[in-house]
Amino acid sequence: MARILLTLCFLSCNVFLRSFATSDDFLQCLSQTIPSELVYQQSSSSFMSVLQSSVQNPKYLTNTTVRPLCIVTASGIPHVQAAVRCGRAHGVRLRVRSGGHDYEGLSYRSVQPEVFAVLDLSRVRAVDVRPFEATAWVDAGATLGELYYAIGTASPRLAFPGGACPTVGVSGYLSGGGIGLMMRRFGIGADNVIDARIVNAGGELIDSVASMDQDLFWAIRGGGGESFGVVVAWRLRLSMVEETVTVVNLQRTLDEGAAAIVAKWETLILQPYVPDLTIRVVVQDNHAFFQTLFLGRCSRLLRTMRAYFPELGMTPADCREMTWLRAMAFIGLNGDANAPPEALLNRTNNLGTYVKNKSDYVRRAIGRAGWEGIFREHLSRYGPGLMIMEPHGGAVPNFATPYPHRQGVLYNIQYVVFWGGEADGTAAAAASGWLGGIYGYMEQFVTSNPREAFANYRDLEIGANVVGGDGVTTYESGRVWGEKYFMGNFRRLAAVKGRVDPGDYFRNEQSIPPLRQGF
Fold first, then answer.
1. What is the CATH number of the domain that holds 348?
2. 57-98 tens-digit pLDDT
3. Which secondary-structure segment (H or E) carries 18?
4. What sections of 249-364 are H helices per DSSP?
5. Which of 114, 165, 278, 458 is the most buried (most CB within 10 A)?
6. d(CA 116, CA 108)
7. Total structural domains in the chain?
8. Where does the pLDDT of residue 21 fall: very low under 50, low under 70, confident under 90, or very high at 90 and above?
9. Backbone torsions φ then ψ of 194, nearest 5 degrees
10. How far apart are CA 31 and CA 313, in angstroms?
């Protein structure tokens, strides 16, 4: 027995020593190429402030969070290449972070204990708008707000079909597909990517993925972040819009017929003749909030609403006409009509409350009776819980990108629950119970076989990767969650991964597993 214990102790010490040596070698490797002031080790007094600089959920900043060996705040492509090469050479994986909005925090934490580093791209965030081409190059670390500001100040007629939250990182948004407020007219964000630059698993820069590797170009436009390499810049196709657009925020309570109005909204989505109109709906407690963006003036919006959606009761007094840039500030900053466009440049996060999200897709209208049940059984019983619904509809174009939720999808649902106190306290248990209850209740109304989910609303509860005996993520474990995000595109994504990163260097708990030839 003593010999066995001695042997176990010897093996444990050796494992620790190898890990320690690997970490030192990795840091030494970084120091040869990257300035020391850009690398924050755990011993640094600034480590925690840099780590939490773009963390959006304090749930992943507890004492039990597995933290990185260091944070590399790259300021250019050579630093990204050096981090990849050093990581590969010394067995340290990278977690890549741009905006930090990953709902499971996988861009800066690991679920299982492991030695890893965070590659933070927030310093790599230039935006080069080319108005006469209606294109823009945007670095991976820029936020949507920074992109919108650069586009809107370059030309009042240009826009990009992005999301409502300005602090979301551009790269994470595009890597997961990116649904947004103008997708019924212009497609999702990833549909409008026309080229990209990527650092591959060998640390080499592919300067034009579109011209050098069509399969990889297809995969990175919505196939999930941190699977195929580090995208360092995206070339975007910009959209032409009216110089004046209209925004409207309206709230209706259950007593005012909210359930019936939401049911009528479901039929509006079926209309392919109104792609300039997007009405995003948030339901919470006993009310429904209708957030409208119309690519035109109020007078034309009101004619459209009278024809298709008179139940909402929109009037001229409800309209606010403004430029597209100011509209994105209005929407992204909680309906503040006085918010200056410069406010979109604020990258400050909010760590005041804990949050958990899940997602669904709806292909058949739920109807008035269904919505009355949702309000009665769940929403009105728990104030902090809400549902955000993004309309798709028949007008969402079918582009050749991995985002599969196209034909026949009415809308996406995001379930959100907030709580204060402790990450795992009584309030957390109540929030989790409500979220699980409504998610279970909604099963009768949403897609099935698979129950579709949105990759940008990452959710480890629907499945996580398992690493096989060869040290590579297994394809079968990835299918559990991957076919919910990507449906029939998952196998093709895995085949691309198997070609460009067969050793599975770029991975996390929900990265695409490599499907190698012969399987």
1. 3.40.462.20
2. 888 888 778 899 999 999 999 999 999 999 999 999 999 999
3. helix 2-31
4. 258-269, 298-308, 324-332
5. 458
6. 9
7. 4
8. low
9. -110, -5
10. 63
